[in-house]
Amino acid sequence: MLSSSDFASASWELVVHIDHPDVEEQKDVTLRVSGDLHVGGVMLKLVEQINISQDWSDFALWWEQKNCWLLKTHWTLDKYGVQADAKLLFTPQHKTLRLRLPNTKTVRLRVSFSAVVFKAVSDICKTLNIRRSEELSLLKPSGDYFKKKKKKDKNSKEPIIEDILNLESSPTISGPPVSPGLYSKTMTPTYDPISGTPASSTMTWFSDSPLTEQNCSILAFSQPPQSPEALADMYQPRSLVDKAKLNAGWLDSSRSLMEQGIQEDEQVLLRFKYYTFFDLNPKYDAVRINQLYEQARWAILLEEIDCTEEEMLIFAALQYHISKLSLSADIQDFTNESEVDEVEAALSNLEVTLEGGKADNTLEDITDIPKLADYLRLFRPKKLILKTFKQYWFVFKDTSIAYFKNKELEQGEPIEKLNLRGCEVVPDVNVAGRKFGIKLLIPVADGMNEVYLRCDHENQYARWMAACILASKGKTMADSSYQPEVLNILSFLRMKNRNSASQVASSLKSMDMNPECFVSPRCAKKHKSKQLAARILEAHQNVAQMPLVEAKLRFIQAWQSLPEFGLTYYLVRFKGSKKDDILGVSYNRLIRIDAATGIPITTWRFTNMKQWNVNWEIRQVAIEFDQNVSIAFTCLSADCKIVHEYIGGYIFLSTRSKDQNETLDEDLFHKLTGGQD
């Protein structure tokens, strides 16, 4: 009797539900276990009792009440705290997930539901051949996202079934990269840099991946434009509060899909979450560039980001051009030619290096601090005063602008000196109207000072605008990115130039487009179809000679040049405030925005940040900056962990450099985004 009672007290019955298609009705299995039995032993007993011969290595135990995986197989049941009342599920760790990509294509593939989302996204990106997976994440769409579409889905479910690219046969399994060459610096080009087609010499890589050449093309080429009716049926955010709702569904990168309530075969969105696109290279990034272009395109069409009508027409012209090239069957294979060019370029670079390079102005660059000096016009908005610009002599040096009554007084005291570090720089341009303006929002103790500068011509505007953009980031014109920034601004302005009517008239006769497909529904309503087509074709003349990949990159650059680019919005309540505000999170700053007017109130730069943390009890994010500035806010439109992860994620991405190996410090990411320390 004694030994029997001892046995009874030491062991107990544990019921485990089996999630397996061959086990009838997913039956429950009852095991007799003791608290000192390790999880691996429980799984071994289960497999023996199920008695089906197969590979069980992907199966693990999921604890329903505690919402966690029991992945540490050497831990005992006592250590995990598992008792007789525990509801355990024996289920595969890799399950089917439907991923809606930025190009609206849905991909079905097997994803780890037990790995943290950061790791799961990394594995997904390896499968889809997208480098820099740290820039992407998974977004669970709000009810509004598919709201308008559901009416159509009831009538016809066919298109949705057809639109799914099935990659289920190849699960994304954690471990080494699919191909060791994929992430190495000496890798051979995977794509043709001009047309974006997979390079024939590297198609052997795809044999290791579910991405066949055909599937790769589906992901690397732009989809045909949606009809205006389909576009009108899609969800469009109407206000900053609506935009804030879109960002509430980002999944927590430090937890698994299963822990966040994602179901098998559920649809989630794969999106670029962080707007810092590192090392975009057409030779390796055809899928990445195309998906980035598609995300930018939909942001413009659905007005998730604001742009002027002039800019909308440039985006429309580029879309029209890209869709024409994507549909063309006459894309040439430049692979061999580009390989020769690459070797020649490498040899010429080596030659320059061995000869010492061009040293004529190296010393000058080191000793001289570049400056700009010119006559510009200035306006400071005040209540009840008309917008009148007054001419002054401006001098731009380091990160500051000083202005004087005239050139002769430059050596004296300026009327005012504006420090642009940390300011907001907004273009105020209308090329057709010859208006080249720069709007500066300069942070001061009680908010933002608004200053308008007006340039005379596009070359002057490009130089001053580039200098302002760099100064806002704390960089001077001595920085290597200054000249490329000037050229980028000039190329964008030239795309806006109006062309001769005769060329457009002849193009209109052979027109093969539905112009409403390339602009937002609101813009389409303002113009007659023929008028809109004429204006798109007029803008198209400036980009008609561009190769496919260059046109996509130019579209991405134009998107990046918009004032609102890279801002992710959240509805928050600041400590001590009686009303709700919008918080804009960008790659280098936080902006407090008036929810009613959309006007920025204050900007805080990450470079001035000393520390940030979360009070989990009251769900409040607190941040300390230099000069004893501290802020605290609670998030109303999303969990505070999402905003905290955004800030930490951007700081993590700023640590990347081209010199380091492309393997990521995942521990550092979780340390910066976890919010526990």
Considering the chains and any ligands shown, give keywords for the structure.
alpha+beta; seven-stranded antiparallel β-sheet; 677 residues
Question: What's the arrangement of secondary structure elements?
Answer:
Layout: H1 2-10, E1 11-18, E2 28-34, H2 39-50, E3 59-63, E4 68-70, H3 77-80, E5 88-92, E6 94-100, E7 106-112, H4 117-128, E8 136-139, H5 150-155, H6 158-162, E9 164-166, H7 213-220, H8 228-232, H9 240-246, E10 267-272, H10 286-301, H11 309-327, H12 335-355, H13 362-367, E11 371-379, E12 390-397, E13 400-404, E14 416-419, E15 424-430, E16 435-444, E17 447-455, H14 458-472, H15 482-495, H16 501-509, H17 521-526, H18 529-540, H19 548-560, E18 568-574, E19 581-585, E20 589-594, E21 600-605, E22 609-615, E23 620-625, E24 629-635, H20 640-653, H21 666-673
Parallel strand pairs: 1-5, 6-10, 7-9
Antiparallel strand pairs: 1-2, 3-4, 3-5, 6-7, 8-10, 11-12, 11-17, 12-13, 13-14, 15-16, 16-17, 18-19, 18-24, 19-20, 20-21, 22-23, 23-24
Distance between the termini: 54 Å
- Alpha-carbon Rg, integer: 29 Å
Strand content: 15-25%
Tell me the overall shape. Answer: globular
What's the main sheet like? 7 strands, antiparallel
Order the strands across the largest sheet as they lie in space.
14-13-12-11-17-16-15
Can you count the helices? 21
Mean pLDDT: 82
Task: Please state the structural category.
Answer: alpha+beta
Helical fraction equals 25-40%
List low-pLDDT spans. Answer: 149-162, 173-186, 201-208, 329-343, 351-366
Beta-strand segment tally: 24
Domain PH: 377-473
Keywords: Cell adhesion, Cell junction, Cell projection
Protein name: Fermitin family-like protein 1
Subcellular location: Cell junction; Cell projection
